[in-house]
Amino acid sequence: MSTTSLLPGPDGQMRCRWCASAPEFLAYHDQEWGFPVKDDRRLFEKISLEAFQSGLSWRTILAKRENFRAAFHQFDFHRIARYTERDVQRLLADAGIVRHRGKIEAVIHNARCAVEMEAAEGSLATFFWRHEPDAAEHGLPQTASTSPTSIALSRTLKQRGWKFVGPTTVFAFMQAMGLINDHASGCISRQAVERARKVFARP
């Protein structure tokens, strides 16, 4: 990874260049992106927000994230799985989120799939971390938008009935939730994420 993928932050430390493209990206980059997650609700939130991002920018979704959390009951997938058409109409009327019927209905549908997955696997984390790729699969950071693992995981999710989980969406999910460390070489957060991954207790 060349230094063109890096940019000094406000403190002079080098970071992934993308985190300078919007003010809200800095904290997200430093505190969240790439750090391993095994909380089921956070995993479901992230894959849901990635579905909403389809065709849009992550900045749009991140700016509305708190609105999404409020609208979807903090992404409690057990509660979302019980949503009815009345909830769909409520969400379509909520100007604080992305009002796309297909994506809203997909999140509700995926919540029901998540409940089934939890019953079968014990937790969403158990399922997703079983698909952590080998280090040898992952090449230079931030040079790909899919991978053999994201393609396979996307296929498995679709077989289980999930929607809006294409290989690119799944790869972005894997980047964000720490299944891979895709911070640029030389980025201050790359070593922090690697340390977190080393002590992370896989479910």
Automatic annotation (TrEMBL):
Enzyme class: hydrolase
One of the Pfam families matching this protein, by short name: Adenine_glyco
MF terms in GO: DNA-3-methyladenine glycosylase activity
Protein's name according to its UniProt entry: DNA-3-methyladenine glycosylase I
Domain of life: Bacteria
Enzyme nomenclature, EC number: 3.2.2.20
PANTHER family reported in the protein's UniProt record: DNA-3-METHYLADENINE GLYCOSYLASE 1 (PTHR30037), DNA-3-METHYLADENINE GLYCOSYLASE I (PTHR30037:SF4)
Alphabetically ordered keywords of this record: Glycosidase, Hydrolase
